[in-house]
Amino acid sequence: MGSFADAVATANDATRASGRWRTIRPLADGSVRTSLADGTKVIHFASNDYLGLSQHPRVAAAAHAAIDRYGTGSGASRLIVGGRPAHEELEAALAAWKGTESALVFPTGFAANLGVLGALTTAAGADDTVILSDELNHASIIDGVRLARATSIVFPHSDLGRLEVLLRDRTARHALVVSDSVFSMDGDAADVEALVEICGRHDALLVLDEAHAVLGPATPSEPACDLVVVGTLSKTLGSLGGFVAGPRAVIDRCINAARPFIFTTASSPADMAAATAAVGIVTSAEGDALVAQLRSNVDRLVPGHPSPIVPVLLGTESRALEVSQALVDRGLLVPAIRPPTVAEGTCRLRIALSALHTSGDVDQLVDALDELGVGLDG
Known about the structure:
This protein has helices at 4-17, 57-70, 78-81, 85-98, 109-124, 139-148, 160-168, 192-201, 248-257, 259-262, 269-282, 285-301, 317-329, 359-371; strands at 33-35, 41-44, 102-106, 129-134, 151-155, 174-180, 205-209, 227-232, 242-246, 309-315, 332-333, 336-337, 347-352.
């Protein structure tokens, strides 16, 4: 018999010995020009705040006003304590933005995926449902599929031919296909139009996670299949939380059956108000200009790349850590991504671009990579 304390200590020692021990790097603030704990000034290429809206004065002012009106917390889940106007205003704005009948906010994007996949699967019956999931989907989708307890099949990344065969040959009555729209570690995009067409042909529900889809691909306004969109408030919108957007019946189902919604304290009114202000910016001419600036930054680094996520494959963990530290020494913060986030042998830098980066920032990064002998293909 051994104690849990001994087991935890042994596990921690093993992680350290493997070279995969992680610590949290303190930053002075959330801007793209910040400093580390030792005072080193850096331009960071690490944040998913793609349009820089977490730093936008109107977004911050909306959060301040919500605190003054509602306080700092929500007190309990909305089914217990009730909602605030800030929640309802955001959900209306999200539904209008995504062109859906309704929307529902969750405390995080992770919780949104757990909630909607479980709620939909229990509605159809786990014993008579198959879930088909792209092999490079985000961890929140992977965990949501596991918790849904239906039969699940992981299809090869973006292999839509294989997906169609699996849908055609299924024995389960109901089929749910789930995919990221933009994949968070490779920065490549799903063929959304083809996914919609395939799901339509085989009477499958498509759940599409648009967390990183700030530059597209666009979701069809009149899809040829049943479609539910999952999104985040934490990236393009610069706030905190996640959401599900889709038919009113699906949202009602989530309210009544999604455990991460039912059993979690509601998001703070300040986060909701900030996200509502951010949606207003994204859907305006100013938002168009920010997206254009982001697109320009991406094209300056890798012309035509579909997202602000640019991986630099380096193979080994030691090489990824070495190059990442060398960039910090040059005033550039680019994180090294290692297992278990990515597969063994595919360690990389993950460059995340923002509309707040200048062309000079991007050029400085390119020059530093060249100086280190690292091309954008690794």
